[in-house]
Specification:
Oligomer: single chain
Largest sheet: 11 strands, mixed
Distance between the termini: 56 Å
CATH class of the largest domain: Alpha Beta
Bound molecules: NADP nicotinamide-adenine-dinucleotide phosphate, L-homoserine
CATH superfamily of the largest domain: Dihydrodipicolinate Reductase, domain 2
CATH architecture of the largest domain: 2-Layer Sandwich
Number of strands: 17
Number of domains: 3
Helix content: 25-40%
């Protein structure tokens, strides 16, 4: 039996998928049952790393998703539209879907899965989170015996590359971002990566699988790395931390769920502190398993195509059964899980403050924190910066809303010149 695949996109990921499907020797035998029938692109004249005879290529993507001969549509276009509409149209035409598009799934997953369940087709998305790392399959299947409480991930390779180089070279953000763009890690418009939006899409998808409900993407707290300076990285180093952009989903014992993305000071002995460069990693904490960590390449043609093709194999294995019904591969969530607002989340904080070097300033800071229930781990004047005292504060776990109120009061004190940075701290 041969199943016909319509490939929407022949860029980095689409090219990688085509390469694997055309060279099945030594891979899973089901690959021999998958054939690329049509390929949709924007520009027919563009030179391609993977060559196709012209009759395979088309710019008419609707013709692919409505083609009665096609069984599975692989969407690797990127962006919200036309990807979302094409996925919905393909589902309406009875096609199974494999997508690497976390932006579409995190924001429009509800309508896509509702449509897929009504039509009896699979929507598979292993490649949408952490590229080649098989974390979606693990959450759907292998970890099913567990209650998951916390997911902590480095889910964006571009920002991890930038932060790693800033740490290793004591470099500033802007020139290293420019390098990442030259090397092809960061896109011309890098905001989805560096403002944390890409990681927020991915953690929303993981949280949905781990905690069994739909995650309102607009409630996922999201802060990127633009404001991180070489000075913060150097101070973090002195205090025994690495700064990482972490994506965190945590369900407390009262079932409240927090899902957030922000730069974080990670203790050097934490397993995520040593994940460097473009690598991704996900640490899951579950009962009874305990901690399990996945790490590997989160992007790139081969890694991402590995995940896309794994989904194709799963679908090919189940297609003889007709309608999508395998309970380990369908997504049946119907309720939306409200998220805890960030002001109610408990975190530890690191803050750097520039103050007049006068008697009593440290005391005023301590009193203000005390008045807002903010318990301090340390409050130290570490030096002088342009004739101002440089003060570094590390808190115990505190309520974010109370900490922010204290910092707002501190920022308006006459002795305080600036608060150059506030970063959350993991653990403790
Ligand atoms: P890419 O290299 O930019 O390729 C996109 C492909 O889609 C191109 O072939 C492009 O056609 C085609 N395309 C885009 N918009 C189109 C439109 N409106 N009409 C027709 N064709 C269109 O993107 P990519 O890096 O492969 O990423 C694809 C998806 O995978 C994205 O959702 C991305 O987030 C996800 N992903 C990527 C990676 C990675 O490492 N790159 C990792 C994980 C997930 P032309 O070639 O003619 O321009
Ligand atoms: N832009 C993403 C990253 C790769 O830098 O990790 C695609 O998910």
């Amino acid at each position: 039996m041969t199943y016909q695949v319509g490939l929407l996109g022949l860029g980095t990921v689409g090219g990688g998928v085509a390469q694997i499907l055309r060279d099945p020797a030594g891979r899973h035998p089901l690959l021999r049952e998958l054939a690329i029938a049509r390929v949709g692109v924007r520009d027919l004249a563009k030179p391609r790393a993977v060559a196709f005879d012209p009759q395979y290529l088309t710019t008419d993507l609707e013709a692919i998703v409505t083609d009665p001969d096609i069984d599975i549509v692989v969407e690797v276009l990127g962006g919200i539209e036309p990807a979302r509409s094409l996925i919905l149209k393909a589902i309406a035409n009875g096609k199974h879907i494999v997508t690497a598009n976390k932006a579409v799934i995190a924001r429009h997953g509800a309508e896509i899965f509702d449509a897929a369940n009504a039509q009896g087709v699979y929507v598979m998305l292993e490649a949408a989170v952490a590229g080649g790392i098989p974390v979606i399959q693990a959450l759907k299947q292998s970890l099913g015996a567990n209650r998951i409480h916390t997911i902590t991930g480095i889910l964006n390779g571009t920002t991890n590359y930038i932060l790693t180089r800033m740490q290793q070279e004591q470099g500033d953000f802007a020139p290293i971002l420019a390098d990442a763009q030259r090397l092809g890690y960061a896109e011309a418009d890098p905001s989805a990566d560096i403002d944390g939006l890409d990681a927020a899409d991915k953690i929303a998808i993981l949280a949905s699988l781990a905690f069994g409900g739909r995650i309102p993407r607009d409630q996922v707290y999201c802060e990127g790395i633009r404001q991180i300076t070489a000075a913060d990285i150097a101070y973090a180093d002195k205090l025994g931390f690495r700064i990482k952009l972490l994506a965190i989903a945590h369900q407390a014992s009262d079932q409240s769920l927090e899902v957030r993305v922000h730069p974080t000071l990670v203790p050097l002995d934490h397993p995520l502190a040593g994940v460097n460069g473009v690598f991704n990693a996900i640490l899951l904490e579950a009962t009874p398993l305990g901690q399990v960590m996945f790490s590997g390449p989160g992007a790139g043609a081969g890694a991402t195509a590995s995940a896309v093709v794994a989904d194709l194999i799963n679908i090919a294995a189940l297609l003889p059964q007709g309608r999508a019904s395998h309970p380990l591969l369908t997504c049946q969530h119907e309720h939306t899980v409200p998220l805890l607002p960030i002001a109610k989340v408990n975190s530890r904080f690191y803050a750097r403050v520039h103050a007049q070097d006068h008697p009593g300033v440290l005391g005023k800071l301590g009193t203000c924190f005390g008045a807002h229930n903010v318990s301090l781990e340390s409050l130290v004047q570490i030096g002088v910066h342009h004739e101002l005292a440089e003060i570094v504060i590390v808190t115990h776990h505190v309520c974010e809303g109370e900490f922010r109120q204290a910092m707002a009061e501190i920022s308006s004190m006459p002795d305080i010149e600036a608060v150059p940075s506030i970063v959350r701290v993991l653990g403790g």
